[in-house]
Automatic annotation (TrEMBL):
Key words of the record: Membrane, Transmembrane, Transmembrane helix
Signal sequence region: none
Domain HIG1: 1-69
Upper taxonomic lineage: Bacteria, Pseudomonadati, Pseudomonadota, Alphaproteobacteria, Rhodobacterales
TM stretches of this protein: 6-25, 45-63
Record carries keyword Transmembrane helix: yes
The protein's name: Twin transmembrane helix small protein
């Protein structure tokens, strides 16, 4: 599986989601109006990145099932 480029891309997308989530949560903790705006922006990016990650995971599973392995 580690030799499959689609698996590596999907794993990187999941890691990206985790990093964006961490940034958003840490920004929420700082308080203030500007931090709130920035945290909301991070959470919007997280939703987009999470959608992409889910699509990549589904594509990986579908392609692997079609290859018989």
């Amino acid at each position: 599986m580690l030799n499959d480029p689609l698996f590596l891309i999907a794993a990187a997308a999941c890691l990206t989601v985790a990093v964006i989530l961490g940034l958003g949560i840490s920004t929420f903790g700082k308080g203030g109006a500007e931090s709130g705006k920035r945290a909301n922006k991070y959470m919007r990016w997280r939703i987009i990145a999470q959608f992409i990650a889910v699509v990549l995971i589904v594509a990986f599973v579908y392609i692997r099932s079609q290859m018989g392995g």
